[in-house]
Amino acid sequence: MDTKNCIINHENYTDSSYDGLSQDEVRRLQEMAPELRDALLRLRRNIHSRQQEREQEAETRELNKLLGVKTPHDAVEERNAKNLQAAMAEQARRDREAVKKKFLCQQGLTEAGIPRLFHSATMENIIRQGLPEALEYPRMRICSYLENIEKCCDLGTGLILTGPCGTLKTTFACSIMLEAFAHGIEARFELVMSMLDRLVMLEKSNKDEYCRTMQKLCSVPILVLDDLGAEGHHADFVRSKLEQIIFQRHANGRALIITTNLSPAGLAKLYPGRIMERLRERCLVLEHNCA
């Protein structure tokens, strides 16, 4: 009797038990102990049956989707998706409330790097004190930024405030930070010269703190770099810190607010094209001039 007939005539099996098996696999099954062969074939049938059930369920779900019919499985998935969305929204709300609580106070503002002189530099206070007519256009554009600060933050849109000393560039930059805190968005203020000196010192003395500081500067939702260009021509390894921050923030879609006494042309002379290209892509330039 040949192998195939032996198998088909076996009292425990049917032709379907061997569907898809090669003759060599059939032969090896015949050489096994009956108990092991029975267990393997049962396992194979169960696996095949479960695969068919899953395929049938998938086809049914697809058909129901086309017909607009919701199955119990669809209802469960929809409920789980809504619960997950609600949980994420609640966590985001708590995170924003934590930011407000932490930074909307004197200690928090100082911790965020804002000089004490600018702790009350809200746009309302700036307008109340009066502005030169020449600064009305920058004020209007910054007010528009404040009205859409959450969207600007999500898109990584920033500003470059240029102009001579005394044109309220730093004041306006701090007003953006205060508005961010009011919306529960974290922000950080850094005087560029001091920041670069601190990074160089930390890299030499405390690698762990240096890495934490760089990570913070690259990831905080809004970073204010005050007085860019005043640092002058530093050594390449010092300038590379600034490049790294700008590159990482550009790649991560993080908003950057820059104040500088230099014109856009002056910045282009001082910084490599790769830096200026990234700044132009993400930042709107506002020229402050009281003349």
Automatic annotation (TrEMBL):
Output the InterPro entries linked to this UniProt entry: IstB_ATP-bd, P-loop_NTPase
Q: Which GO terms describe its molecular function?
A: ATP binding
Ranges for the IstB-like ATP-binding domain? Answer: 158-263
Q: Which PANTHER family match?
A: ATP-BINDING PROTEIN RV3427C IN INSERTION SEQUENCE-RELATED, CHROMOSOMAL REPLICATION INITIATOR PROTEIN DNAA
Biological processes annotated in GO: DNA replication
Tell me what this protein is called. IstB-like ATP-binding domain-containing protein
